[in-house]
Amino acid sequence: MHLDQEQARGRIAVFGATGSIGASTLDVIARHPSRFRASVLSAHQDVEGLIALCVRFRPDIAIIASEAHYTALRDGLAQAGLGTRPMAGSQALSDVAGSDACDTVVAAIVGAAGLGSTLAAARAGKRILLANKESIVVAGALLMRAVAESGAELLPVDSEHNAIYQCLPTPAIGAAARPGVRRVVLTASGGPFRGWRREQLANVTPEQACAHPNWRMGRKISVDSATLMNKGLEVIEAHWLFNAAPDAIEVVVHPQSIVHSLVDYVDGSTLAQLGNPDMRTALAYGLAWPERIEAGVPPLDLAAIGRLEFQPPDERAFPCLRLAREALREGPGATTVLNAANEVAVSAFLQGGLRFLGIPEVLQSTLARLHERGAGDLPSLLELDKQARRLADSLIRHEA
Ligand code: NDP
Ligand code: MG
Fold first, then answer.
1. 5-157, what's its fold?
2. Is the pTM of this model over 0.90?
């Protein structure tokens, strides 16, 4: 490849490369070698997985967030004969996200651990493909301000928000007033326990919760889908991305996951984006925007699907959606607390230390007991996150 062709290729940093979104992103990148290059890859602890990706994609930099794994990464890259530079630690994630090692950052780390690199990319004016919804739930105001000030291109790749982005008039992101838009409607698959009564959920296992009917995803978001917290986080995400009032964000359960979300206009028009449930569509959209590229996703066969169903969410069996709406109405500090408590509760559930129905109880108790809401700047949000994690953890230990 000539030097000018090489320079014309978009350099993509994939943060969370070893995860489910990371794999889908790299699949799209691999389909367009003359257009994109994975210049940075990161993982948390999965050194073997990261090295294998480096062998395949030959990035300039590989970052392992857990510093204890640095030597293994360095030695593994050297043994594979790669010139990839090894780095470690969460500070390295932020430094590289904001550096000239990449033009585009795919924010696909799970949890608030993704906040630092997402924010650094926003401040540096990068194109950001945002999958890491927790970062906008924790620090939506800060992130949107950084995007506005730097001129970063924030492209949502959460499938619902990507759908809404495609159905809204431009500019879709953070626009102040959008005459003509009545509301946005997020679709929810309902998860593996759709239609179950509360009593039936008492003894469900992590394996059942992670067996999503339509999507193959990481374990944390799979549990969030099962509790409907994922949809709660997405309501908060939609509020920040699209500057939508809480009352102008609806949720409808749609078991087939074909209609990814909708926008209602005041004249009675409703625009929807449809497609097979495959994250590569949204990722290809974000990578190539405003153009369209092949994503490896088969075309929709509506006649084969036959029926598209819609129903209201059951907030009695799945109270997390209501808790998220309440936190959004209360303000930014409350959503930070909600997210932190949820990360702790989901992790405890996955490790067998908390019942499924204990998840919303932990969220509710943490929100009720932690009255401190902070000043809204980054240090106070991080402190609030830490306090909420400690409190949620002690509530869970108390219960066990
Ligand atoms: P996975 O669990 O599959 O992958 C998570 C990635 O983040 C892995 O690369 C993991 O590294 C890395 N990681 C985990 N913890 C840390 C940490 N503390 N510091 C740095 N890196 C870390 O998750 P998903 O790909 O499913 O989800 C990623 C994000 O995208 C989430 O925010 C999720 O809500 C969102 N999302 C996912 C969708 C999906 O279809 N999967 C759909 C829409 C949104 P390691 O492998 O080493 O643990
Ligand atoms: Mg989603």
1. Rossmann fold (3.40.50)
2. yes
